[in-house]
Write a structure and sequence with these properties.
Blueprint lengths: L3 E3 L2 H13 L4 E6 L5 H13 L2 E6 L9 H6 L4 H8 L6 E3 L3 H4 L17 H5 L3 H16 L3 E5 L3 H13 L5 E5 L19 H22 L4 H15 L4 E8 L5 E2 L6 E9 L2 E8 L1
Parallel strand pairs: 1-4, 2-3, 2-5, 3-4, 5-6
Antiparallel strand pairs: 7-8, 7-9, 9-10
The structure holds pantoate.
The site of pantoate (PAF) has 10 residues, from β2 and α7.
């Protein structure tokens, strides 16, 4: 059955109230659209875990620190709905800007600490925008579980902390990154890569795998980083925002994986900012 498309909060609440009355659990998959196999895997995980599934599509202006990036962000609502149809999603919630940020909207949800590093340090205000919109989506939907990709691992940790700190009764589930055949992490932004850049993009994952192999044999990040950065530059990457080893829980920087850690990278290719991370 085709999912129902909902554009207003009142319609959403009417629908979820019926489900709650019937004691049905609700899974939420927040997205900004331009859906790819990564998003679809989240919808499937929600389908497996919950009685009802809502996928949200909202290109959230508050989390873009660059107006051009916001303008270029792919918007493909019709295709998105087609992709979700076979997945037995119950509803697609597509609110407009006025619905999410009505006139005189004045509240900001800000998670300290976790947002000072990695993408938070390079994209001022980004995680405030994410935390604010995700808090709204959690409260609007009343979902029991929400599904996020590990590709945006920092976002996952920020959202977890936000929900815990604000006592929002929802469990935040992290799902594995889905990759193209050459290892590139799936992302809506990959659509903005030229054909040549798309071929080069997989180098990011190859370099990260090599750094990960070095770390696993006991080499330190400080020793491995210079060669890795040089390889990325040689392949054609522009600015490299970070290539860091960080603890999984508090994202503190590490030189060796002495506690559960992930390797994180963000680099520009053709003006497209690619991010990725892998467990060590
Ligand atoms: O990961 C995303 O697509 C967005 O940051 C999210 C979680 C939908 C919030 O706008």
């Amino acid at each position: 059955m085709k999912p129902v498309i909902i554009r207003s909060l009142s319609e959403l609440r009417k629908l979820t109230a019926q489900w709650v009355r019937r004691d049905e659990s609700i899974g939420l998959v927040p997205t900004m659209g331009a859906l790819h196999a990564g998003h679809l895997s989240l919808a499937k995980a929600a389908r497996d875990a919950c009685d009802r599934v809502i996928v949200t599509i909202f290109v959230n202006p508050k989390q873009f620190n660059n107006p051009e990036d916001l303008e270029n962000y792919p918007r493909t609502e019709h295709d998105d709905a087609e992709k979700l149809a076979p997945l037995e999603v119950d509803a697609i919630y597509v609110p407009d800007g006025e619905q999410m940020y009505p006139k005189e909207f004045a509240t900001n949800v800000s998670v300290a600490g976790l947002t000072d590093v990695l993408c938070g340090a390079h994209r001022p205000g980004h995680f405030d925008g994410v935390a604010t919109i995700v808090a709204k989506l959690f409260l609007q939907s009343g979902a029991n579980q929400a599904f996020f990709g590990e590709k945006d691992f920092q976002q996952l940790q920020v959202v977890r902390r936000m929900a815990r700190d604000l006592d929002i009764p929802i469990s935040v589930v992290g799902c594995p990154t889905i990759r193209e055949d050459d290892g590139l992490a799936m992302s809506s932004r990959n659509l903005n890569l030229s054909d040549d850049a798309r071929k080069t993009a997989a180098t990011l994952q190859q370099v990260m795998q090599d750094v990960a192999a070095g770390l696993r044999t006991g080499k330190a990040m400080g020793k491995l980083r210079p060669t890795a950065l040089a390889r990325l530059k040689e392949a054609g990457f522009g600015d490299i925002d970070y290539l860091d080893l960080r603890a999984m829980d508090d994202l503190g920087e590490l030189d060796t994986p002495e506690r559960p850690a992930r390797l994180f990278a963000a680099a520009y290719l053709d003006d497209v900012r690619l991010i990725d991370n892998i467990a060590i």
